[in-house]
Write a structure and sequence with these properties.
The protein contains 20 helices and two strands. It is an all-alpha fold. A two-stranded antiparallel sheet has the order 1-2. Strand 1 and strand 2 form a beta hairpin. It is globular, with a radius of gyration of 22 Å. The chain starts with a helix and ends with a helix. The relative contact order is 0.12.
Length: 422
């Protein structure tokens, strides 16, 4: 009974998603609540979603009731709604999505699809990046061509929006960085999300994915997200705990689903990605920053990224734990996407190391203090001046971590589609 009902729900979704246009989940919720039948069904789904947040799992009858409620939505626009990454009331929109699709979140790596609209369908910002960069190129701040991270930072400093949001998160994250007692990780993560959501990608991706030829540049890149607060814990948590923390948060769960969909690796694909869209994968990766599953570069001398977690003492869930870590450490799609953005070609491991850096130092919780906040304060002091040279003392940037390698089972991600084809 339960299995056939669940398979029916998967078949229903597969057909319905192809049939109806998508709408904003907030607008779809309002439309549903205005109809008495849909209203009653939606309230049942809200109760189901609330029950899933409790420690005790749903019993068989409750699960059937919840699955029936999803089926009862029929052709409601709620079943096909999506959210946009930079929309107002994003958390509300995501809460509606996961209320209606609660069954998607059962178990690890079974998030089926991203709640976000396809990036290609979202409105693209018109930015002044090239104009600002051109102004910079004619100044003494253009700097050494061997440190593109410094140049990207200076360009950001010349954009009011970029420097404002960067100053905000740098100030919050640097306050008490390196000490869990004084670092407000939640506010730091929110500040980082604001930066990556509200500042055009022309600026953010150049800061986060700047190609480096030495470790000084690599350190700036690694410290972009102020890892002492946003990334490190005094003790590495288990990756299973990190995932549980993510699935309890609508934003993190949504970003993870988006990352799984857009950065899903495919061994037979020339670019390593099942979706063949490096831009979407890059955006999905940046979306993970500022969540409980924030990734970062593993060292000053590497373009490899990982989570700050371990799979030690995972017991009989070691394989699942390795899969979580492998989403970042052993993901060819993500690796190729980052190399492509940096305009680097994949080389043999020893050749790539020689090409990028002269030495290799791994940082797994270094206590190096960041000068981001102090440099940002210099920007505030000089805001009344408009001369470009006033920004010569502007901040560092960067990112970090390392862990164990593992495989990412794409079969599980495709399971619903495989079931619906029979």
């Amino acid at each position: 009974m339960g299995l056939s009902l669940f398979m029916g729900l998967l078949l229903f979704r597969a057909g319905a998603l192809l049939a109806l246009p998508r709408s904003d989940c907030i607008a779809a919720e309002q439309l549903c609540l205005s109809n008495s039948t849909c209203n009653a069904t939606y309230r049942t789904l809200e109760q189901c979603a609330l029950a899933k947040t409790r420690v005790l799992p749903l019993d068989h009858d409750s699960r059937v009731r919840c699955l029936n409620a999803e089926l009862d939505l029929g052709n409601s626009s709620l079943l096909h709604c999506k959210c946009q990454r930079r929309m107002k009331r994003q958390e509300h929109c995501l809460r509606v999505f996961w209320t209606v699709h609660a069954s998607m979140a059962d178990g690890y790596f079974n998030l089926e699809t991203s709640p976000y609209e396809n990036p290609a369908n979202e409105e693209h910002w018109k930015t002044d990046y090239n104009k600002v960069a051109a102004v910079l190129s004619g100044s003494r701040l253009a700097g050494d061509a061997t440190n593109p991270c410094l140049k990207a930072t200076h360009v950001c400093n010349l954009s009011k929006k970029c420097v404002r949001h960067r100053t905000d998160y740098a100030s919050i994250c640097s306050r008490g960085a390196g000490s869990e007692d004084t670092c407000d990780r939640r506010k730091c993560h929110k500040g980082l999300r604001n930066f990556f959501e509200k500042v055009p990608e022309d600026f953010t991706k150049r800061i986060l994915f700047c190609p480096c030829q030495d470790e000084l540049c690599g350190e700036r890149r690694r410290k972009t997200i102020v890892p002492e607060c946003s990334f490190h814990y005094n003790t590495k948590p288990n990756c299973l705990w990190l995932l549980d923390s993510c699935l309890e948060d609508h934003i993190c769960k949504s970003r993870l689903a988006d990352f799984q969909q857009n950065c899903q690796p495919a061994d037979m694909s020339p670019d390593g990605c099942s979706q063949h869209n490096h831009a979407a994968c890059l955006q999905a990766y940046m979306g993970m920053i500022g969540t409980p599953m924030t990734p970062n570069y593993i060292s000053n001398s590497s373009v490899d990224v990982s989570l700050w977690c371990t799979c030690e003492s995972s017991g009989n869930q070691k394989e699942k734990c390795d899969q979580i870590l492998g989403m970042f450490e052993s993901n060819k799609c993500l690796e190729n996407t980052i190399l492509s953005q940096m305009h680097l070609k994949k080389e043999a491991p020893e050749r790539l190391e020689d090409l990028l850096y002269s030495s290799s130092i791994s940082f797994q919780g270094d206590s190096a203090s960041t000068s981001l906040a102090s440099e940002m304060s210099q920007v505030d002091e000089g805001k009344t001046q408009r001369d470009i040279s006033e920004h010569s003392s502007m901040p560092m940037a960067s990112s970090v971590y390392s862990g164990a390698a593992a495989s990412w089972p794409s079969l599980v991600l495709f399971l619903p589609l495989l079931l619906s084809s029979h």
